[in-house]
Amino acid sequence: MSDSLRDQYLIPSQPYYRAVHDEVTLYEAAYSVRMPVMLKGPTGCGKTRFVEYMAWKLQKPLITVACNEDMTASDLVGRFLLDANGTRWQDGPLTVAARIGAICYLDEVVEARQDTTVVIHPLTDHRRVLPLEKKGELVSAHPDFQIVISYNPGYQSLMKDLKQSTKQRFGALDFDYPKPEIEAEIIAHESGIGKDLADKLAQIAQRSRNLKGHGLDEGISTRLLVYAGQLVAKGIDAQAACRMALVRPLTDDPDMRDTLDAAINTYF
Ligand SMILES: Nc1ncnc2c1ncn2[C@@H]1O[C@H](COP(=O)(O)OP(=O)(O)OP(=O)(O)O)[C@@H](O)[C@H]1O
Ligand SMILES: [Mg+2]
């Protein structure tokens, strides 16, 4: 397999990742034995950034696949394509990752149907192989290959859950929004705003998270806080930035919007 393909998937420069607990050490230990890893946590809390950082730190290529319910096993492993010279096999992203020794990050894996998800089973146990049934090839995973999946617990219905036989192939790391001091540090770094403002944004998020289950499905994510900071850094007034980045995306309910707007007005 050509090195240029591998190089294409390397993370070129160090991504900013603020470690929150011992996730870096735990992940490194898991990677060292090629344990498949599941990252669990709400939207916008740093899961994708963490994988990018770890891929960079370990100097391994990273191949990310956004999963959805229309995805088939062929979308992961590959398919025959028709071209001028007849048919040609094209590896899917999972196969490419297994061949080049990448970290394969399956984002939102519960969205995929269970008959799609099972193709990762032989890659995530001692066999470390991927059968390409249509092609009649058994790919042995490169020694560097590892699977990482992400998962938002609680968002999916009971119908949409991973089978136990899938879940129990992974070690899992819990992610959550960090405590306000750390979150403020992240917001300040990512948006370039000052500490005072970043602190206020983190506190607003904290308050919104208390409304989870009381009219909000989810509190304001770190991602949205970074957006708000970026708008302010562009000269937008803080209240307007918060309305656009923190309140409007979160809910359509007029009462809840008023509640959040009022909370914001107490800070600015
Ligand atoms: N610990 C962290 N260190 C650095 N940046 C962070 C951290 N946590 C969150 N962020 C910031 O929040 C943004 C959103 O994080 P990320 O995209 O990793 O979320 P996610 O958990 O993958 O969300 P989703 O489940 O929606 O994909 C990042 O782009 C980054 O700016
Ligand atoms: Mg993500």
From TrEMBL:
<dbReference type="InterPro" id="IPR011704">
    <property type="entry name" value="ATPase_dyneun-rel_AAA"/>
</dbReference>
<dbReference type="Pfam" id="PF07728">
    <property type="entry name" value="AAA_5"/>
</dbReference>
<dbReference type="InterPro" id="IPR027417">
    <property type="entry name" value="P-loop_NTPase"/>
</dbReference>
<comment type="similarity">
    <text>Belongs to the CbbQ/NirQ/NorQ/GpvN family.</text>
</comment>
<keyword id="KW-0547">Nucleotide-binding</keyword>
<keyword id="KW-0067">ATP-binding</keyword>
<dbReference type="GO" id="GO:0005524">
    <property type="term" value="F:ATP binding"/>
</dbReference>
<dbReference type="Pfam" id="PF08406">
    <property type="entry name" value="CbbQ_C"/>
</dbReference>
<feature type="domain" description="CbbQ/NirQ/NorQ C-terminal">
    <location>
        <begin position="183"/>
        <end position="266"/>
    </location>
</feature>
<dbReference type="GO" id="GO:0016887">
    <property type="term" value="F:ATP hydrolysis activity"/>
</dbReference>
<feature type="domain" description="ATPase dynein-related AAA">
    <location>
        <begin position="36"/>
        <end position="170"/>
    </location>
</feature>
<dbReference type="InterPro" id="IPR013615">
    <property type="entry name" value="CbbQ_C"/>
</dbReference>
<protein>
    <submittedName>
        <fullName>AAA family ATPase</fullName>
    </submittedName>
</protein>
<dbReference type="InterPro" id="IPR050764">
    <property type="entry name" value="CbbQ/NirQ/NorQ/GpvN"/>
</dbReference>
